[in-house]
Design a protein that fits this description.
It is a single chain. This protein starts with about 30 loop residues before the first strand and ends with a strand. The protein has one helix spanning about 180-195; strands at about 30, 35-40, 40-45, 50, 65-70, 75-80, 80-85, 90-95, 100-115, 140-150, 160-165, 170-175, 195-200, 205-210, 210-215, 215-220, 240-245, 245-250, 255-260, 260-265, 290, 310-315, 330-335, 340-345, 355-359. It contains one helix and 25 strands. Helix content is about 5%, strand content about 35%. About 5% of the residues are buried. It has a four-stranded antiparallel sheet with strand order 10-9-11-12, with no helix packed on it. A three-stranded antiparallel sheet has the order 13-18-19. A three-stranded antiparallel sheet has the order 14-17-20, with no helix packed on it. The chain has four domains: about 1-65, no CATH class; about 70-175, no CATH class; about 185-265, no CATH class; about 285-359, no CATH class. By secondary structure, it is mostly beta strands.
């Protein structure tokens, strides 16, 4: 029996004989109704008419949170035919798991209905010679709400998926009716006016597919090793998992919505290509050439310094003594070198010096 609580007590630990105090039905609790009820036997109002099941395992509970899917009446387009669902259907996914994983939809069954089985197919032409004559046989399509596991994609010819649920979260669901001519016209107008855009941006997050250690650091994966991913591949270290959070966008004028998080597999870059004796262009940026260098600038980590790359003052004249500022020279700028390399040797003799490049 599946029930929906309308109201309850306030204590989770109260005994079932403590009137109006327990939140849930307790194992072995006797239940009564405030009206006369009949199920095989007639019970008067206020008398015990039901007893909650008592599991053999004391750690089990007869009552638990479950999950279910309900589809209301409507008309569905199935196998090229409009099929009416005349009564709502409810499917219990699990009686004790509020976070199930399943594909839920209609299982399609077809049968031929004959006039012998349904007398409404007999000819109703009263007063004529063919009154109550046998009519044509009819093809009847039945829709039964059912579920499949996420991994089960076999024999989907007679199964129409309505909703996909992964660990209690709705991943995809059937869309409402789209009217082709008017819908296409509105979509074309929307695209011409605004192009493609997002209304509720999709948040992206990338994780490992399976748990992966880098040194002593653990990067937690989205799946267990060997488990089937949402893309039906085996979870392994060669993959990353892209998590796409729910969002809304318009693509080519049509509204696209992800109602639940979507996980996609990304293959890690594993290919290696070796190129030898090849030139590689790179942008140097601003640089100057200096000669007769006295010492070298700091371009690495400097102890007791809070600002990286110690500054160097620039003057408008050469210094007469190495390492000493000439009082006649005026400062014209400041630079912070990021790289320093030897470029060429100068000629020998008076006034010769080595040339360096500073970036």
């Amino acid at each position: 029996m599946y029930v929906k609580y309308i109201s309850s007590g306030t204590s989770e630990s109260a005994a079932f004989d403590d009137e109006n105090s327990s939140i849930f039905f307790e194992n072995g609790e006797n239940l009564s109704a405030d009206i006369t009820t009949t199920h095989t036997t007639t019970y008067s109002a206020g008398s015990n008419s039901l007893t909650v099941f008592q599991p053999d395992d004391p750690t089990d509970d007869a009552c638990a949170y479950g999950s279910a899917v309900r589809v209301n009446t409507g008309v569905f387009y199935v196998k090229g035919t409009f099929v009416e669902l005349s009564a709502p259907q409810t499917l219990v996914l699990s009686y004790n798991d509020p976070f199930p994983s399943a594909r839920v939809g209609f299982t399609i069954t077809e049968e031929v209905v004959t006039p012998e089985a349904d007398t409404s197919l007999l000819d109703n032409a009263t007063g004529t010679s063919n009154y109550a004559a046998k009519g044509a046989h009819r093809l009847k399509i039945n829709l039964t709400l059912s579920k499949k596991t996420l991994e089960d994609s076999s024999n989907d010819d007679d199964f129409v998926e309505l909703i996909k649920i992964n660990q209690g979260e709705v991943v995809t669901k059937a869309k409402e009716t789209q009217y082709s001519i008017l819908g296409n016209a509105l979509a074309q107008r929307t695209y011409e006016e605004s192009g493609d855009y997002t209304v509720k941006p999709y948040q992206l997050n990338i994780t490992e597919s399976v748990d992966n250690f880098v040194g002593s650091d653990l990067f937690q994966g989205a799946y267990e090793v060997g488990e089937r991913t949402d893309d039906f591949t085996l979870a392994q270290d060669d993959f990353l998992t892209l998590h796409i959070q729910p969002g809304i966008s318009y693509v080519n004028g049509f509204r696209q919505e992800n109602v639940g998080a979507v996980r996609k597999d990304l293959l890690k870059a594993r290919d290696v290509k070796t190129i030898e004796n090849s030139k590689v262009d790179f942008e140097i940026g601003n640089y100057i050439r200096v000669t007769n260098v006295y010492n070298s600038p700091d371009i690495g980590d400097i102890s007791d310094e809070t600002t990286p790359y110690r500054p160097i003052l620039l003057f408008d004249g050469a210094q007469t003594t190495r390492g000493t500022r000439d009082s006649s020279a005026n400062p014209i700028g400041v630079l912070r070198p990021r790289a320093f390399q030897h470029e060429s040797n100068g000629s020998t003799g008076a006034g010769a010096g080595n040339q360096h490049q500073e970036q």
